[in-house]
Write a structure and sequence with these properties.
The complex is a heterodimer of chains A (about 100) and B (about 270). Chain A has 1 helix and 4 strands. Chain A has about 100 residues and is mainly β. Chain A has one domain. Chain A has a 4-stranded antiparallel β-sheet. Chain A is elongated, with a radius of gyration of 16 Å. Chain B is built from 9 helices and 10 strands. Chain B has a 6-stranded antiparallel β-sheet. Classes of the chains: A mainly beta (about 100), B alpha+beta (about 270). At the A-B interface, strand 1 and strand 2 of A face strand 6 and helix 7 of B.
Chain lengths: ~100, ~270
Amino acid sequence: MTMSTTVRQQVLVLYLDTSALDSRVIGWARYDGTGTTRPTTGDSDEPPYETGVAALEDGWRLFQAAQLVPPYPGTEHETSFLKHEFFFEKLVSGG
Amino acid sequence: MSTTRQLLSSAQVARFTAHGFLRLDGIVPPEMNEEALAVFAAGLPSVPYGTPVPKAFPEGSFTRRLVELPAVAGALESLVGPDPTVDHHHVHTREPREGSAQPLHGDAVIDLRTDAFDVQLMYYPQEVTAEMGGTLIVPGSHLRRTNESDTGRYQNLRGQTRLTCPAGTVALLHHGIWHGGRRNDSDIVRHMYKIRFNPTVPQVRLWDTADLDAPAVREELGRGFPWYEQATGRLEILNRIRLWRALTGDPTFDIEYWATRIANRPAAQRSQA
């Protein structure tokens, strides 16, 4: 019997209050490459972690952070997407 | 539209300006809620874009009676003005155990208007429980400039409203609000009837302004929401001040000096003198 070496990715996206990783979580999303859960829009009112660092402490690995981009001239007061977006992953073996 | 005017107060319109929506819980009578399900099953006639309400919904029709309920008519007149046109209407249905939710989105396309807004009426003829996956609404998201479902990545935001409501509830939404139909995890078919209204008059002081200077108005307009980032939340207040100035025709209105401070340019004012 051969042992499976497939590794699947679980992704956690956290939106933070400021650009600091230890600031408060204000939004979140999950995507599960193992297929065991199906997170979706509006499925929870409480964030999985209070801060970005709390996710690190629980074993999530940060792999992307939003850049700090100055506003385009003339649009400094406009609001649009959430600015402080952090992508985390866990690699789960099996399958 | 209304024979009995029940206009909104300034505090209510300020709440709409801050939240981007207003709830009127359980205001449609039970007999109309029962009738609605049969009306929806039979199908509603389509309405050409931009049709005046009396032509879109003939006297005595279900929808005409719905929008002429005094509380509904008064709220619509207060926000979108008398004699709005109907943009479109549609019954949204979420089937039982439906596998997915809608992505978070704003309707239509990115909308740059700062001196006008459309109002979307959402009517729920049934009680909506948490399991039935009522509409997800993000309070205070209506002034964000995003296009349709580009916000789909955001599954949950602090302070979001996962609407549960009694039968006969009507919500009135600013066109820009982020929302989405949640996954229906129940065994009950869920209906929501949406009508979009376009203004035909300037949306200035259309409500009962007797309480315009009441503390509650400033309290509503200065409100933060849990999902606002610290810095961007200040811009939300600034944009809200600008909207309130447009709605009241008062170019001096301000909250905590946010708008006045950054418009103070003595050199420019001197050169214009």
